[in-house]
Amino acid sequence: MTFEELGLEPNTLKAIVEMGYTDPTPIQEQAIGLIQMGRDVMGIAQTGTGKTASYTLPMIDILSNGRARARMPRSLILAPTRELAAQVSENFEQYGKYHKLSMALLIGGESFGDQERALDRGVDVLIATPGRMMDLFERGRILLSDVKILVIDEADRMLDMGFIPDVEKILGWLPPLRQTLLFSATMAPEIKRLADKFLSNPKTVSVAPPASPAELVTQAMVVVEAHAKREALRALIQNEAVANAFIFCNRKRDVAVLYRSLERHALPAGQLHGDMPQSARTETLDAFRRGDIKLLVCSDVAARGLDIADVSHVFNFDVPSHAEDYVHRIGRTGRAGREGRALTIATPEDARYVAAIQKLIGKEIPQVTLDGAAPLPLAEREGGRGGRRGGKGRPAKAEPREKTERQERTVEPREKTERRERTVEPREKTAEPREKAAPKPRAERPEAAERAAAKRPARRGRAPQPADEVEEMPHGDDVLAFGGHTPSFLLRDPFAK
Ligand code: AMP
């Protein structure tokens, strides 16, 4: 099938040709026609499948008829992160360059004034993160009664980030008579519930993840002790012909630490994480695109949605705790038909995370060794969960409690600015993130018991026992209670004269 056969407008086709696209991708083949017909669509597709164009292209055609009124956008696209929102708006500009559509990007970190002025002029397409969107609506700066098309992009990420209640609230402000397009990489029960509630007779289209993971990406892994990770990274950078690279850390704070370390070693590095102001992020990305920065240390969220075609390497400074993040990370290289290399630095304690990744990608990541180093086995050590993961010198916590960037994402706040941080709960708990649960009694909070147990000094010469979970009396010996011993003062007859 060709783009012409999909019935797109000549001006849209012209822009597509200029983008160098020859054929529609499978999601585009399936979704474009349905969207043109005005159907609601549930699209199961990941980044890299061409899903953005699958909705932007038909939207451009639909919106090319009609005019927007002041502060009344005609379509709304909700994206979980600023980067993705910016990427979508870039695509609109590219695909819509021969149309006179007006667009506004409402994301935190950018000046309210500029965004509001754009809205006042009237926009055909409003692209927003949920936080900023709610903020402006609640301050009466936007009217949503004219929205004819709503897109919720990367709904699974919205779920991860605790945005679903915000999205539901926004959906409640929209006119019921509209076309709704929901895109998600997975069909989690919460996403299904959202679709059932807000989509009207939707058509589901689903495509496989993009040749997963990019067949043009060569993958390898080195296993080193946690304290040797930075050195290993520098050795890898030296050994490889790195034109430019993303270097992923699991936590935002490690991004800054690693960045400073690379700078100290005079490597041309930059950093990108959720706590940086938007202007600094944009500046860093531009410097990376220009090649002034060759090594971009980043977090998963910050790198999400970035579409830089020519990245030679991806380094995983940390093995991601969520296997699908690995696929997203290494998909930053090997794009647009170019070859790429993805190198992961693991520690022996990462065994189970590596196993999960290998299971997901359906193959083993070959282990390589650094010059002269003996291979280190990647095997769960005794007490491996208590070993060190993530960064240098920080003891890891039990997995569900480990606060990776997935859980400490910076999200768009409602009233304040972009930079307020919300710590979201793991997936199962995000259904009611705004409701403050009553504190559970201690016995129901295994994590509290774990923390308490971790704080208690382990007794010398004795491996931690299940009984260590029990709150102990502060005896110096092994007595947990009186047990079989009867202390002598109890044996004394108190009435004896
Ligand atoms: P997305 O899944 O929307 O993140 O798109 C992934 C990448 O595919 C982007 O770099 C797009 O520019 C590119 N792309 C989208 N549609 C096509 C197409 N039909 N042919 C080639 N590349 C495409």
Could you characterize the architecture of this molecule?
By secondary structure, the chain is α/β, with parallel strands linked by helices. It folds into two domains: 4-206, Rossmann fold; 217-361, 3-Layer(aba) Sandwich (Rossmann fold), CATH 3.40.50. It contains 17 helices and 13 strands. The protein has helices at 10-19, 26-36, 51-63, 82-95, 112-121, 130-138, 155-160, 164-173, 189-198, 229-239, 252-264, 278-290, 300-303, 323-330, 351-361, 446-455, 488-491; strands at residues 41-44, 75-78, 103-106, 125-128, 149-152, 179-184, 203-206, 217-223, 245-248, 269-272, 295-298, 313-316, 340-346. The strands form two sheets. A seven-stranded parallel beta sheet has the order 3-4-2-5-6-1-7, with helices on both faces. Helix 6 packs across helix 8 (164-173). The N and C termini lie far apart (106 Å). It binds adenosine monophosphate.
Topology of this protein?
Layout (H helix, E strand, L loop, with lengths): L9 H10 L6 H11 L4 E4 L6 H13 L11 E4 L3 H14 L7 E4 L5 H10 L3 E4 L1 H9 L10 E4 L2 H6 L3 H10 L5 E6 L4 H10 L4 E4 L10 E7 L5 H11 L5 E4 L3 H13 L4 E4 L5 H13 L4 E4 L1 H4 L9 E4 L6 H8 L9 E7 L4 H11 L84 H10 L32 H4 L6
Parallel strand pairs: 1-6, 1-7, 2-4, 2-5, 3-4, 5-6, 8-13, 9-11, 9-12, 10-11, 12-13
Helix pairs in contact: 2-3, 3-4, 6-8, 14-15
Summary keywords:
single chain; 497 residues; alpha/beta; Rossmann fold; 2 domains; seven-stranded parallel sheet; six-stranded parallel sheet; 17 helices; 13 strands; 34% helix; globular; binds adenosine monophosphate
Q: Summary?
A:
This protein has 17 helices and 13 strands. The protein has 497 residues and is an alpha/beta fold. Residues 382-490 have low confidence and may be disordered.
